[in-house]
Amino acid sequence: MSATTPDHITHHGDNTPGQLDLSRPSGKRTIKSGCASAFMIVATVLAVIPLAWLLFAAVRRGIGSLFHASWWTHSMDPSFDLAEQGAIHAIVGTLEIGLITSIISVPIALMTAIFLVEYARGTKIAKVISFAVDVLTGVPSIVAALFVFAVVVTTFGGTQSAWASSLALMILMVPTVLRSTEEMLKLVPDSLREASFALGVSQWKTIMKVVLPTSMTGILTGIVLGLARVMGETAPLIVLLQFNTELTFNPSTPNFATLPTVITNAYTQGGVDTPVVWGAAITLIILVMGLNLIARRISRRYMRRMGK
């Protein structure tokens, strides 16, 4: 039996009077669709304008510093001439603190997310932990810095150091990575888990061999977002570090420099028009963009190896 089209309905090209044309939306729908499209375009433009303005200002004012070889090879050691001083000590310090923070934060966030999704989904303890993570997400960086200072320095007699700063940044990074990882794990279809269980695979091996590989791209993105947030934080570094003008690799020393502290120190001494302020700012942007590109490349190679 072949399907027939009712007489009162026509398709595009039939202009018989009295018939309903389904190829064109009605006038009200066209207006609503146009308004919605206009609002989305305006919202996109409003979101892009500040970013483009920021990048333009940073590049225009700070690109000159980046073209000097000394910027990438020298520190701000007073023994160097002012024209030969650079930011290698701050670049190394930023990467070192970011690495320490990631080593501490990522395993904690991943394990907690796996517990919430794979072992405690729907339980009361999962709801309590999720609520605590939501609260921790809104904690200001200065509060995290003061908390670590009170515990590490005041209570246990520790010293200001990159380790202490990493602990404060860890408090800020864990919620971001945890929440993004949790959402990625929830997107994995339950049918994949059930198929693995049906083959007699244990839950832990299912998580390691099925769930995590499927959601690895989103997990890497969450890690990069969390790292990008903490690399630009300033309050924990001001509270838990002392500014240093020399290159050092020891995270236990209180004298340590990062790009955010270089920006703060240069702004305090010379104002917003100081070339070092914008040079350090554009360098920090380049570092974050570089980490993002590296994560995307690793993700693509991983997905290609997985056959996706």
UniProtKB/TrEMBL annotation:
One of its GO terms (molecular function) is phosphate transmembrane transporter activity. Keywords: Cell membrane, Membrane, Phosphate transport, Transmembrane, Transmembrane helix, Transport. InterPro entries: MetI-like (IPR000515), MetI-like_sf (IPR035906), Phosphate_PstA (IPR005672), Phosphate_transprt_permease (IPR051408). One of its GO terms (biological process) is phosphate ion transmembrane transport. It is found in: Cell membrane. Residues 1-26 are annotated as: Disordered. Pfam families: BPD_transp_1. The keyword Magnesium does not apply. Coiled coil: none annotated. It comes from the Bacteria. The keyword Membrane applies. The chain crosses the membrane at residues 34-56, 97-117, 129-156, 162-178, 210-231, 276-295. Belongs to the binding-protein-dependent transport system permease family. CysTW subfamily. NCBIfam families: 3a0107s02c. Part of the binding-protein-dependent transport system for phosphate; probably responsible for the translocation of the substrate across the membrane. This is Phosphate transport system permease protein PstA. It comes from Cutibacterium acnes. The lineage of its organism: Bacteria, Bacillati, Actinomycetota, Actinomycetes, Propionibacteriales.
